[in-house]
Design goal:
There is one protein chain. The protein is α/β, with parallel strands linked by helices. Among the domains are: about 60-185, Aconitase, domain 3 (2-Layer Sandwich), CATH 3.30.499; about 320-470, Aconitase, domain 3, CATH 3.30.499.10; about 515-700, Aconitase, domain 4, CATH 3.20.19.10. It has 24 helices and 29 strands. The strands form seven sheets. Strands 26-25-24-23-27-28-29 form a seven-stranded mixed beta sheet, sandwiched between helices. Strands 7-6-5-8-9 form a five-stranded parallel beta sheet, sandwiched between helices. The radius of gyration is 24 Å and the shape is globular.
């Protein structure tokens, strides 16, 4: 989250936009994340080293966009830009709505392809595969690179030692136009994996267990660095799966080390896929360069958190229903005889060759249970071709699986095979938010490819061993630890757009056009982890012409269908922790703005939602004390209402960086006063200009 006022040597400094991108402090040791950012940071003073908390201007090695490339292109043109700053930096892939053959969608796809040709940008058409898989296969995501994408699962690239992190559409347009965007280096969590996975336990079980064991936002908005002996025993495909779902864990990146396992994987790719040593990204020279220039975290580098997980204590785990925060041993769910209607082996999480082979091994010679639909889609055309050559793809089809084109599809609620009212699905995807894969009245579980395939045959959530009448071993307790070093400074409750309150009594200068105060009635949406699908339904995400009135109408409907009738212009939304978690859709912010709501207060925010909010001029404040007050005051009402008009009013005095909450009216008795961070002039200017897009446009015009 953007912190506009920071404490440097005990003094508060409000940074202007130019300094925002270049300020850093000298430190004696760096994490691997900080070292990679150092390589791609622009404007860093000689002798200075970046670290967590610093704002930097970054020039990423590559920037990928998918079906949202055309909206990004329109933003790019709207900025007054006509030529991509570095056409070797930009990659366009078509992967999300590839089953949609409507004239409207095909026209959008043609527009993207034509734009890519005009700009000389690398382009991968529908059917080639999921963008994240392509970036790994083609080497855009490469060890020690900083590669971004306008999609929340850019974390995937950490599986190959590449610092991957998501951006939003406006950021992508800025990169197209200038080659750069901004990033605040997040706190870094060190996750040590001990031991070795037992037979039948997979990388998917690792990340499902991590999401379930550490499910109280321990790594929210952190960068994660995986270390330990357990890493050596994980395949690259398993690392990619784990890194991919660090997004669901709440992290901004999930970085694995570059080791011999990864080097051997690249050697295999060079031997079997790159037939000539002239690939622009994967070549003998590039692999040797990585081998000869190993980068690791310094031994005395400081981490914000230290977590451990003993892999030997894991068993197969299942996530859900309808939440990645709930992880249950498969042995418990299997005994409950949970019947399923649909099973899915699709998405950027678990549709690589090893996943397809694992599922095919389970299902070969068997048949999908009558009444169950089992959908399969390879992560890329290369993966599907390899699976066909070794017979694994045919084994799935012979068992009754229904093939889909290489792409996203049902994972994001698009195309064939979506969950209907009352149905239960089990999927090898990354998200099981309510309503994401179809009906919000369906139940969705997440599991490994092996468990998904076995469940398709059994007709219920179960083990592969059950198909042979065996009783699987019950799960043992997971061994894990977490520590929060005392070196990590404490902050106060308040924050403006993620601003840390500094305790300064100085007044904030107010730019012309920016209000000195913002006030309104508080409307409580009392839930943690309200995701972007709940805020703006996925079925509208890739409809690029949804009018503002419609956006306002459907805002929060997957959270509460009564939200629209209970809110009005000028209200202030108040919610719990990790508000706006999930996908990168910027409409989660713009839909709230469409209801003429200018301010959201929460205990904390998903980082990608914060980026979208800042870039689209939606103001946010973090005030955990207010959430506590409201939850105590409206505990009984919460039992019957999801959206509660509180009758309490908040006033944010921007000049003094103070929020006052009163009972009954803006002049009623004071219930809470909270100091929040200062909203500096640089951020005010972005808001006054209507967001980052308007700000950049004004700078280009000048």
């Amino acid at each position: 989250m953007l912190r506009l006022a920071q404490s440097l040597n005990g003094k508060t400094q409000s940074r202007n936009w130019g300094r925002l991108f270049s300020t850093s402090r000298f430190v004696s040791a760096q994490t691997l994340t900080e070292k990679i950012v150092q390589k791609y940071a622009v404007g860093i003073a000689p002798g200075k080293e970046v670290r967590s908390g610093d704002y930097v201007s970054i020039r990423p090695s590559h920037c990928m966009s998918h079906d949202n490339s055309w909206p990004v292109a329109l933003k790019f043109k709207g900025l007054g830009a006509s030529k991509v700053a570095d056409n070797r930096q930009v990659v366009c892939t078509l992967d999300h709505d590839v089953q949609n053959k409507s004239d409207k969608n095909l026209e959008k796809y043609r527009n993207i392809e034509n734009f890519a040709k005009e700009q000389g940008v690398d382009f991968y058409p529908a059917g080639r595969g999921i963008g994240h898989q392509i970036l790994v296969e083609e080497g855009y995501a490469f060890p020690y690179n900083l590669t971004v994408a306008s999609d929340s699962h850019s974390n995937t690239y950490g599986g190959v030692g590449c610092l991957g992190t998501p951006i939003v559409r406006t950021d992508a347009a800025s990169i197209w136009a200038t080659g750069m965007t901004w990033w605040q280096i997040p706190p870094v969590a060190r996750v040590e994996l001990k031991g070795q996975l037992q037979p039948g336990v997979t990388g998917k079980d690792v990340i499902v267990a991590l999401c379930g064991v550490f499910n109280n936002d321990e790594v929210l908005n952190h960068a994660i660095e995986f270390v330990g002996e357990g890493v050596d025993k994980l395949s690259v495909d398993e690392r990619l799966t784990i890194a991919n779902m660090t997004t669901e864990w709440g992290a901004l990146s999930g970085l694995f080390p570059v080791d011999q396992v990864l080097i051997d994987w690249y050697e295999d790719r060079l031997k079997n896929y790159i037939k000539k040593d002239n690939h622009p990204r994967i070549s003998r020279a590039s692999i040797d360069n990585v081998k000869n220039n190993v980068i690791t975290a310094d031994g005395d580098a400081k981490f914000a958190k230290y977590l451990t997980l003993d892999l030997s204590t894991l068993s197969p785990y299942v996530s859900g229903p309808n939440s990645v925060k709930v992880a249950t041993p498969l042995s418990e769910l299997s005994s409950q005889d949970i019947k399923i209607n649909k099973a899915y082996l699709v998405s950027c999480t678990n549709s690589r060759l090893s996943d397809i082979v694992a599922a095919a091994k389970v299902i070969k010679g068997r048949k999908v249970k009558e009444g169950v639909e089992f959908y399969v889609a390879a992560a890329s055309s290369i993966v599907q071709k390899d699976a066909e050559q070794i017979g694994a793809w045919n084994d799935l089809l012979e068992a009754g699986a229904k093939p889909l084109p290489a792409g996203c599809g049902p994972c994001i609620g698009l195309g064939t095979g979506l969950l209907k009212d009352g149905e239960v699905g089990i999927s090898a995807t990354n998200r099981n938010f309510k309503g994401r894969m179809g009906s919000r009245d369906a139940l969705a579980y997440l599991a490994s490819p092996e468990v998904v395939a076995a469940s398709a045959v059994l007709g219920k959530i179960g083990f592969p061993e059950e198909m042979d009448g065996k009783t699987p071993q019950a799960a043992q307790g997971i061994k894990s630890t977490i520590s929060d070093p005392s070196e990590v400074g404490e902050t106060t409750d308040g924050g403006a757009a993620g601003v840390e309150a500094t305790g300064s009594t100085a007044t904030v200068s107010i730019l012309p056009g920016f209000p000195e105060s913002i006030q309104g009635e508080l409307v409580l949406c009392d839930a943690d982890n309200i995701n972007t699908d709940a805020i703006y339904p996925g079925k509208y995400t890739y409809q690029d012409d949804v009018p503002r009135e419609k956006m306002a109408e459907v805002c929060m409907e997957n959270y509460d269908s009564d939200f629209g009738s209970k809110t009005k212009a000028g209200d202030i939304i108040v919610s719990g922790f990790n508000f706006g978690t999930g996908s990168s859709r910027e409409q989660a912010a713009t839909a709230i703005l469409a209801r003429d709501i200018k301010l959201v207060i929460a205990g904390s925010f998903g980082n990608i939602f914060s980026r979208n909010s800042i870039n689209n001029a939606l103001l946010t404040l973090e005030i955990p004390a207010l959430i506590k007050l409201l939850r105590e005051r409206f505990a009984e009402q919460k039992q019957s209402e999801l959206t509660i008009r509180t009758g309490l009013f908040a006033q944010w005095d921007v000049k003094t960086a103070t929020v006052t909450v009163r009972d009954g009216s803006t002049t009623g008795p004071v219930l809470l006063t909270s100091k929040v961070g200062e909203l500096g002039e640089s951020m005010q200017e972005i808001i006054v200009k209507g967001g980052l897009e308007g700000w950049v446009r004004s700078k280009i015009a000048n």
